[in-house]
Structures are given as structure tokens and as C-alpha cells.
């Protein structure tokens, strides 16, 4: 049983700003944990039965985006939801779980311990009365909160009838960004995501693709990370007196190209460097 939760009404000044902007915001929320004012959230949703590809994609996107300062919002379901929450927790980042039941009726029950961990490092929230069971028609209603809390929704593997597609539709209806990770044309768990892309969702293969839609965040993220550079990142920046190839950077920094590629990707995410169309790397302020 979840204890010590509190209630937040729509009229409360601490009510989430973005959620208040949707067409039908919940009149009240029950909360265990802490909601932060003007929290920067991104929703991550998908199938309950992910493939190994979906699992790896979820881990990759969640880890990078959480470490860049996004609070990861999802629905505590099995599969992609649970993985996204868990990866955020493992990286000591914030995550929010939105329930399709009351706070005292965690569903699925196998995620009860995960819910408690989320409450300590973020929040679990619900608009349903604390002892209300998880009923099938609660979940589409719950999905509008997931979409409403976030500036964008990322869908990772979803069948054509997945509830994740409802979240994506609700995000679109409320003028929020929708992103989809493409998948195999032979996988039933990619039919939904591939269809979203055909309908206009942005195809993403890297967290950089998501950041491109939120250009106003880049300087904010850069300011946050510039004071906490690694030794290798400093060496790379010092070597970029002018645009260089990855081979040139490898020679100057004594870093193997495989290792260097990973570091350069991280630095692109932090908006410290950029890769030009000609393949050269340069500092973003050059």
C-alpha cells in the first residue's frame, strides 16, 4: 500500500503547467513523491512485449535523455514503460509513473517495488481515487496525462492496436511533439511505430534527433554540462582549434576511433560540438 500521498488540485499554483494546458486536464491528482514546478518531461511509451531491439533502443534513448535533464514519464506497465523507469532510476535521474488505478492498487502488482523506488526518486501519480482498481477503460484516460505532462512523446515498438498509439494521438491533439523509433517491417511490434512515422511522427535514431526539435534547450543543456567535462572531452575540445576529421582527432587525443565515436556522440548531445555535413567535427561556438 502506498502511504503519505497528497492531493493537488487544478487550481493549485503547483499544478503542472503543461498538463493544465491540455483540453481536459484532471481536476485533481493524487501524488506520492515530488512533482517539480516547470519540470522538463519527455514521455517514453511502447509495447508490453518488447523485442531485444526494443529493449536496447529504450535503454539507449532513456539513459541519454535522462542524463541530459529530462524527467522520464511513463505508465508503469510491463515492457517499455518499466524499462524506461528503471533506466532513469539506475542513472540517478527523475522519473514519473502515471497510473491507471489508484495509488493503493498498483498495477501490475509485480511493479509494486518499482513504484516505491520511483516515488523516492520522482513521483507516482493518479487522478483515480486511492483504492480504485485498474479497469480497462482507465488506461486511455491515463494516457492523456502521460502525454500532457511532457513536451514530447517517444514511442518505442508498438503494435497497431497498442495503447502507446493512443498516447501519441493525444500528444498530437495537444500540440506536443511525437517521435517514433523505426522498426522491422516484419515485426508486429513495429507496425504501430512505422505507421506513426508515415502519419508524420518524427523518425528518430538518436537522442540528437529529438533535441533538434527543441533547439531552445541546447544552450541550457550546454550550460549545465560545461562545468562537468571529462578529461577526454577537454582533450577533444582543445584539439578542435579548427574543424577536424575523426581520424585526426584520434591521432591528437590518443583515443581509439571506437571509443572516440561514443564520446563525440555524447558531446553532440551536450551541444559542445557538432558534426558537419562534410563529416568534420567542430565546436558549437565556432
Characterization of this structure:
By secondary structure, this protein is α/β, with parallel strands linked by helices. It is 40% helix and 16% strand. It has helices spanning 17-20, 52-67, 80-90, 112-121, 138-149, 163-173, 191-198, 207-211, 218-225, 231-239, 246-253, 257-269; strands at residues 6-9, 28-33, 41-46, 71-74, 95-98, 122-126, 152-156, 177-181, 202-203, 273-275, 281-283. The strands form 2 sheets. A 9-stranded mixed β-sheet has the order 1-2-6-5-4-3-7-8-9, sandwiched between helices. A two-stranded antiparallel ribbon has the order 10-11. α2 (52-67) links the parallel β3 (41-46) and β4. α2 packs across α3 and α5 (138-149) crosses α6 (163-173). The mean pLDDT is 91.
Amino acid at each position: 500500500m502506498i502511504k503519505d500521498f497528497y492531493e493537488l488540485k487544478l487550481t493549485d499554483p503547483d499544478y503542472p503547467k503543461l498538463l493544465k494546458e491540455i483540453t481536459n486536464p484532471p481536476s485533481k491528482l493524487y501524488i506520492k513523491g515530488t512533482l517539480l514546478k516547470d519540470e522538463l518531461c519527455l514521455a517514453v511509451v511502447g509495447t508490453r512485449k518488447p523485442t531485444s531491439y526494443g529493449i536496447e533502443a529504450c535503454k539507449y534513448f532513456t539513459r541519454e535523455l535522462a542524463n541530459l535533464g529530462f524527467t522520464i514519464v511513463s505508465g508503469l506497465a510491463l515492457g517499455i514503460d518499466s524499462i524506461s523507469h528503471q533506466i532513469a532510476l539506475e542513472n540517478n535521474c527523475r522519473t514519473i509513473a502515471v497510473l491507471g488505478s489508484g495509488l493503493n492498487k498498483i498495477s501490475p502488482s509485480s511493479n509494486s517495488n518499482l513504484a516505491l523506488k520511483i516515488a523516492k526518486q520522482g513521483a507516482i501519480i493518479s487522478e483515480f481515487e486511492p483504492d480504485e482498481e485498474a479497469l480497462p477503460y482507465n488506461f486511455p484516460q491515463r494516457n492523456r496525462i502521460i502525454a500532457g505532462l511532457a513536451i514530447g512523446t517517444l514511442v518505442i515498438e508498438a503494435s497497431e492496436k497498442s495503447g502507446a498509439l493512443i498516447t501519441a494521438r493525444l500528444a498530437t491533439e495537444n500540440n506536443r511533439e511525437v517521435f517514433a523509433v523505426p522498426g522491422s517491417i516484419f515485426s508486429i511490434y513495429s507496425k504501430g511505430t512505422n505507421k506513426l512515422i508515415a502519419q508524420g511522427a518524427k523518425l528518430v535514431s538518436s537522442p540528437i534527433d529529438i533535441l533538434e526539435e527543441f533547439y531552445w534547450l541546447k544552450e541550457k543543456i550546454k550550460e549545465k554540462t560545461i562545468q562537468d567535462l571529462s578529461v577526454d572531452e577537454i582533450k577533444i575540445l582543445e584539439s578542435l582549434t579548427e574543424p577536424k576529421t575523426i581520424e585526426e582527432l584520434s591521432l591528437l587525443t590518443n583515443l581509439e576511433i571506437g571509443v572516440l565515436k561514443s564520446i563525440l556522440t555524447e558531446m553532440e548531445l551536450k551541444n559542445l560540438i557538432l558534426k558537419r555535413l562534410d563529416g568534420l567535427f567542430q565546436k558549437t561556438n565556432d
